[in-house]
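Researcher: Sit down with what I've pasted below and flag anything odd:
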Amino acid sequence: MSIRYIAFSGGVGGAKLSLGLARVVPLDELLIVCNTGDDFDHLGLRICPDLDTVTYTLAGRADRVQGWGIDGETWSCLESLAQLGGPSWFRLGDRDLATHLYRTQRLREGAGLGEVTAELCHAFGIASRIVPVSDDPTATLVATSEGELAFQDYFVRRHCEPRVTGLRFTGAANARIHPQLAAALGSPALQAIIFCPSNPFLSIGPMLAIPGMKESLKDTGKPVIAVSPVIGSQAVKGPTAKIMTELGMPVTSLAVAEYYRGVIDALVVDEVDREGLGAIRDLGIACEAAATLMKDDQDKMQLARMVVEYADVLAR
């Protein structure tokens, strides 16, 4: 395996940078690793939101307005389900259903999640290597002011409304790092590990909770670079800022750096946060500013190039 760059991804921000990296890094040199803490069973189907968002994005099929789901989706099945009185709170489109049906059937046949992901990538015409962080199931549970909620209950059914007091990753203690990821982490060709601008708590956190993950990252001796999901005092998308506030953290890239302290070697922040570079560097974390808001494919590629070039400088 000639993997030089490993990208840890979750959510829409992760998918955007993953696309940029896939377009600027030779395909055989990039491994995209997806969070599985969001995965759950619904209507008898195994749903893997982060894997699907990255897959649809790299296939050019993602809904560009909302960032997830399939462009041009229809909702006939969901509407019929609602008429029957079934659960319609989690929006599964007609085209999207095919992915979940295929995955669920293959898993029942004994295939691993990574194997099924590779099959889906092949079917969608994706040449990039995309793997789940583990073939073993894990689940993010959110402790809230209203009790502990399964992630999708908190995120989708409750629209992130309850106040967050903590997080727990069930199954993580028994999960094993995916073999392709383990091999890439041990590859002499490895140049850097990149944390995409994903939610540190809900997307990157579950992956770091897998036994041996933090140690494996450190043992590579290669730079671990995170891209901050915070611009100014706001998160680009999702509940990152809300969770930081509720956990008593300021909504700043400095707070993101402190959360990742001991794991990352460098942080890329947005240009508007340039004045905070010194404080982050005082933590012993290298830091540079760049345009991190990815509005179109050109922005994604530009940020990807910057991160790769920065990684190469740090690796020297």
